[in-house]
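Severity: low
Component: inverse-folding endpoint
Summary: output formatting inconsistent between runs
Steps to reproduce: submit the following C-alpha cells with default settings.
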C-alpha cells in the first residue's frame, strides 16, 4: 500500500485515479495545482506523485518536478508525469532539450492497468 499524491486540475481524472488506486489499497491525496501539491508534499510525504503538466500554467507540473528535485526533503519521491500535452497546441512549449526530473510517463487517457503497474513498480 502506497501513499499516492494525484496532482491534476481535472476533477474527473482525479476521481478516476482515486477509484483505481484505492481499489488496490493505496491511500490517495490530491492537489489541483503546483502550489497545493508542494504544500501537501511538505506536510505529508507521499510515496509517489502522479503529476499533470498543464494546470495553473502550461508547464506547472514541470516546474513542480524541478522544485522537488532541488528540495532535499522531496527529491527522493518518485514522479510520474500524467499528461495529454502532446495532443495540444502547447506541445511545442514542452522542453525537449533537457533531461526531465521524472521517473515515469503516462499519456492521457490513462489505462487503469498501466496506472497501477507504474505505481507499483516505482514504490
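Observed output (run 2 of 3):
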Amino acid at each position: 500500500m502506497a501513499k499516492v499524491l494525484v496532482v491534476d486540475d481535472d476533477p474527473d481524472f482525479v476521481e478516476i485515479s482515486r477509484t483505481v488506486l484505492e481499489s488496490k489499497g493505496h491511500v490517495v491525496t490530491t492537489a489541483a495545482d503546483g502550489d497545493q501539491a508542494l504544500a501537501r508534499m511538505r506536510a505529508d510525504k507521499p510515496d509517489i506523485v502522479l503529476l499533470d503538466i498543464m494546470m495553473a500554467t502550461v508547464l506547472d507540473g514541470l516546474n513542480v518536478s524541478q522544485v522537488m528535485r532541488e528540495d532535499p526533503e522531496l527529491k527522493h519521491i518518485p514522479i510520474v508525469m500524467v499528461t495529454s500535452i502532446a495532443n495540444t497546441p502547447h506541445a511545442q512549449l514542452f522542453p525537449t532539450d533537457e533531461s526531465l526530473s521524472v521517473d515515469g510517463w503516462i499519456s492521457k487517457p490513462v489505462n487503469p492497468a498501466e496506472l497501477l503497474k507504474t505505481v507499483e513498480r516505482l514504490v
